[in-house]
Amino acid sequence: MSSPFEQILDPARRADPYPLFDRLRDTPVARQPDGTYVVSTYREIVSLLHDPRVSSDRRNLGSDAGEAPRDPSFIGLDPPEHDRLRRLAMRHFGPPHAARTVEELRPEMLAIATRLIDGLAGRSRADIVDEVAYPLPVAVICRLLGVPEEDEPRFHAWADQAIETLGPGEQDRAERERARREVLTELENYLAGLAEDRRRAPGTDMLSGFVTYHGPEGGMTHREVVATAVLLLIAGHETTINLIANGLLTFLRHPGLLDRVRAEPGLIVPAVEELLRYEPPVQLISSRIALADIEVGGTTIPAGSPVVLAVAAGSRDPAHTPDPGLFLLDRPRNEHLGFGGGAHYCFGAPLARLETQIVLGELVRRLRAPRLVADPPPYRPSAVLRGPRHLVIDYAGVD
Ligand code: HEM
Questions:
Q1: Where is this region: Disordered (predicted)?
Q2: Confidence of residue 378 (pLDDT cuts 50, 70, 90)
């Protein structure tokens, strides 16, 4: 009988991993046969997210060093390098020019969502993943970075392949690693070319900011620009797509919820927060390494061990959240781990929240009598970034 964690990694269990996450929490810090430690309770995960002895830099995995990425982006670096690059990237995050808040992007995001949902009119069946959840975040992040719209389809394919090859598990590891590197190299070459263009003729986009800015701390090297752009592109949409798809799926499974949000559109804000807890797109943070012996939850994780933080289990920990298996719009306090925590807390959280609120709000408002064609829908294979591959719905029209 395989362990709960091994079963979670099995693609056949993707549709409903939550009973397995519940069992995983019976052993808050569980050593796996390969020496990886899986941590699954809220308190223990939070303490490790904030522990400087837990590294995100894969180069600290001695034996694995040959496989480490060539240009780690800041998600794979520790302070102080992490902090310098994250600060430099943050300066240019958001709409062009000063006084940026993601709120200023609302009209543009609404326009993109409106165009995509208009495209569903005149028929009665659609795949919400391919037609809405996927194109929306791609369009938003491409626009922020300054990727020309006509290149978006190429982009799509690269980011998709990069994600499908990701995640723990021994199956085809070498082949997946090879495919992943090939795709990342193509994406890097493309972005390096675009960065060169912006150096010669800067615009108002983020990439132009990256290549031209030099402050008291200096600027980004060419390699850092490319690594940061690749990170934003991939992190910026492969997660949001799943939140949108998981969101509509959850609404359609709970018709009372759909009616409430339709009647009171402001409820989309707590609904998205609850989704991040209840159906989180990032289920496992799988790239940490213990730099010292660390005692946590009554277990000592030995120095050098890979550590997996099962955030999807932590967000449903009954010791922290009452009735964690229920989707509730009116939780007095919703503390989830959907965006991680500590130094690597999601850089794009405000953007992701707003995109998802807008598009889900519009889907709920405009789709007439939507219903699922298949439940559960087919899932993408990754256990790390979990979400439906397709979400086919029938509906009676579009308002
Ligand atoms: C980091 C989740 C959307 C950019 C993270 C982490 C999580 C997460 C859990 C922590 C990873 C770790 O600790 O290793 C999500 C979810 C999203 C989302 C659930 C959508 C629903 C976005 C968007 C962007 C973005 C839209 C960019 C525009 C990043 C970056 C990091 C990050 C750059 C690394 C931060 C660092 O290392 O300091 N995200 N994310 N994410 N996210 Fe997101």
A1: 56-79
A2: very high
